[in-house]
Amino acid sequence: MRSARTRARSEAIAGMLMVAPVLLWLAATILYPLGAAVAISLRDIRVIGSDGGFVGFGNYIDVLEMARLWAALGRSLVWVAGNAVLQTLLALGTTLLLNQRFRGVRLVRVWVILSWIVPTIVVVIIWRWLLGTSGGVVNYLLVTLGLVDRPVGFFAGPGSAMASLVVINSWRWFPFVAVMLLAGLQRIPADLYEAAAIDGAGPWQRFRRITWPLLQPTMLVLGVVGTLLSFNVFDIIWLTTAGGPSGSTQTLPVLIYETAFKSYRLGQAAAMSVLVSLLLMALAVLLTRALAPKGEG
């Protein structure tokens, strides 16, 4: 009995020692920054490095009363929804294509991966050149083909600017989603498709009865991770429109940056960050429960 207990205790200690480095890493990269943000949010800090006066929950009250916060939240939700729909459609279509057997499929798969690892600044430069009002390739083609009378200002209007950013960000990230979906798709046994084909099931029926249900676990993970990543996107928006025109693309990350480093209200920016973190945690739980297969508690 003692040997069994000793063995179990040794295994537990060994397990804790193996997990300890990961826990320390999470504490250093997540818990400490979050704790520091909470501490800053309770003080009226205007200059980096200063202590500021203790204001308690005053920053949270001020932030929640800001109309700009709620407007930015609404734009963030539109941003996340637009990216989720477009990225899913692009990735799913690409995945179904890459799962086929044709000459050059390996080259196409490599191209998809390479397009994902392109630096963000390069992506922004390319798309600003493509969608530019003066000399942009897309506008040149639209005018040449007679589809429009004059160049379209893709970044000039509130609606077109947000839509353009959704396209750019979706193009940036759909290869990653496609690669993950392809991995999940290739785990589906080929025997299922062969049996369905023998039973007379067409391509759409095979997709609806086999592919889509068996891809749902992968879609669940990608849905949660993709939503959290899209919500926190800052670089593409800032490098392309900087939140303009007239704040129409000012999402929560952009608002937090401007509050901290342009308005010099670090306490309020930290309060926004804490609120956003809590919102994303709640959103992750809701998405996990909503997308989980029926029957799982």
From TrEMBL:
Q: GO CC annotation: what is one?
A: plasma membrane
Question: Keywords in UniProt for this one?
Answer: Cell membrane, Membrane, Transmembrane, Transmembrane helix, Transport
Name it: Sugar ABC transporter permease
Pfam family membership, one? BPD_transp_1
Please give, as recorded in its UniProt entry, the membrane topology of this protein.
Multi-pass membrane protein
Its annotated compartments are:
Cell membrane
Q: Return the SUPFAM superfamilies for the record.
A: MetI-like
Which Gene Ontology BP terms does the record give?
transmembrane transport
Instruction: Keyword check for Transport, yes or no.
Output: yes
Which family is it part of?
A: Belongs to the binding-protein-dependent transport system permease family.
**For the ABC transmembrane type-1 domain, which residue ranges apply?**
73-287
Give TM regions: 12-34, 76-98, 110-131, 151-171, 214-239, 269-292
